[in-house]
């Protein structure tokens, strides 16, 4: 596996995931992100700390299975992605919904 440079770390995080479960996890200071499948836990931790300037206590990752999708008579699959749940230290937070 190739070494990831510090300048490439922000590219590991694709987007925050906003769902009902992710919103419930916000109360426990946990945030859910979609990351590139090759990203490791230390790389994800470093990327979140650099991008949002927060202290990360733990990183949990999961590789979600591909889901079947049918369009007419054709059967295909949605692309597979990796999801991570990041727990922040007390007092740290990320503004996913900035004040307007």
TrEMBL record:
One MF annotation (Gene Ontology) recorded for this entry: rRNA binding
Alphabetically ordered keywords of this record: Ribonucleoprotein, Ribosomal protein, RNA-binding, rRNA-binding
Q: Which Gene3D superfamilies match?
A: 3.30.70.330
Question: Where does the record place a coiled coil?
Answer: none
Q: What cellular component GO annotations does this protein have?
A: ribonucleoprotein complex; ribosome
What's one GO BP annotation on this UniProt entry?
translation
**Pfam families xrefs:** Ribosomal_L23 (PF00276)
Q: What does this protein do?
A: One of the early assembly proteins it binds 23S rRNA. One of the proteins that surrounds the polypeptide exit tunnel on the outside of the ribosome. Forms the main docking site for trigger factor binding to the ribosome.
PANTHER family recorded for this chain? 60S RIBOSOMAL PROTEIN L23A
For this chain, the family text in UniProt reads: Belongs to the universal ribosomal protein uL23 family.
How the protein assembles, per its UniProt entry?
Answer: Part of the 50S ribosomal subunit. Contacts protein L29, and trigger factor when it is bound to the ribosome.
Return the protein name: Large ribosomal subunit protein uL23
Annotated organism of origin: Merismopedia glauca CCAP 1448/3
What is the phylogenetic placement of the source species in the record? Bacteria, Bacillati, Cyanobacteriota, Cyanophyceae, Synechococcales
